[in-house]
Sequence to fold (144 residues):
Amino acid sequence: MHTPEPISGTILVVDLEERLPATRATLEEAGFTVVTANTTEAGLQSARQQTPDLVISEVMLEKPDAGFVFGYRLKSDPTLAAVPVLLLSSIFQQTGAVFDLNSPESRQWIKADAYLERPVSADRLVHKVRSMLLHRGNGNGHTH
Fold:
C-alpha cells in the first residue's frame, strides 16, 4: 500500500484570540508548525517576517471585512503573493452574504485561494490545508 508523503509546513493563523488555541492544537497535531496573530495588522507583520507556507484567516476580525482586506494586502505584496490564503468565517450565517471564489467578480475583490464556512470540523480543516499545500506548486497560483 502506498503511503503518501507527509505534508508539513508553517501555517499562519489570524483569528479571534479565543479560537486560536483550538486551531493551533488541531494543526500542530496534524504535524504543522503554527504561528498565530489576533489582528490582521499583526498577521501581516508576521507573514512578512516568516513567509508562511499557508495563511488561514477569519474574515470578520477588526471590521466585518477585515479578512478580505488582509488577503488583498497579502496578495499585493510581491514577497507574499504566492502564499495560499484560506478564509474561514461564519459570514453567511451572520449576514447572509454569499460569495463564490470561482466567479470572476468575486476573484477581483476576494484575494483568497479557498473559503470554508464555519463551523469547520478539525478533520475538514486539516484536509483542506493539506490539499492546498499539496497543490500550491501546480499551475500559476490559480485554484482549480
Notes: Confidence is low (pLDDT under 50) at residues 138-144. The longest helix spans residues 122-135. The CA atoms of residues 116 and 124 lie 9 Å apart.
